[in-house]
Amino acid sequence: MQTKPDLRTTFTRLKKILQKHAKYLTVTMDKPDAYYLDAAYSEKFKRQMFFGAAQIKKRYISFYLMPVYAFPNLLKGISPALKKRMQGKSCFNFTTIDDEMLAELGALTAKGFARYKEAGLV
Fold first, then answer.
1. Which of 53, 7, 45 shows the shortest CA–CA distance to 28?
2. Fewer Cβ atoms within 10 Å of its own Cβ: the N or the C terminal residue of the chain?
3. pTM greater than the 0.90 cutoff
4. Mean pLDDT, consecutive 10-residue segments, the chain of 122 residues?
5. What residue spans of the chain are helical by DSSP H?
6. CA–CA separation, 25 vs 86, rounded Å?
7. Which CATH number covers residue 68?
8. Among positive and negative, which fits the CA dihedral 62, 42, 110, 88?
């Protein structure tokens, strides 16, 4: 019998990626199963801009990273393994995450943060 992956550990690891940028963004949700960050208010869209989130679902953890939706060129050069985790244009799903993929996702998040900053959203 296969053991259920430890989703809580995966969630905690993914949440830490987002928390590195939290002092420059707005934490809109911080619950045991969900962590959301918003960027600055956009005059163009007349609303607060979503940055990213980690959320425990029934069988996996979703990691949302809106900068890759807004600036798809950020995805150039990502590994096939990370690309395989993509669901839609800005969501990555995980049951577990190894150190290598965690580092790659962390670097992608940092690039996304920098791109939002260049666009005046941070």
1. 53
2. N
3. yes
4. 68 97 96 96 84 96 96 96 96 95 98 95 88
5. 7-19, 67-70, 80-84, 99-118
6. 24
7. 3.90.1150
8. positive
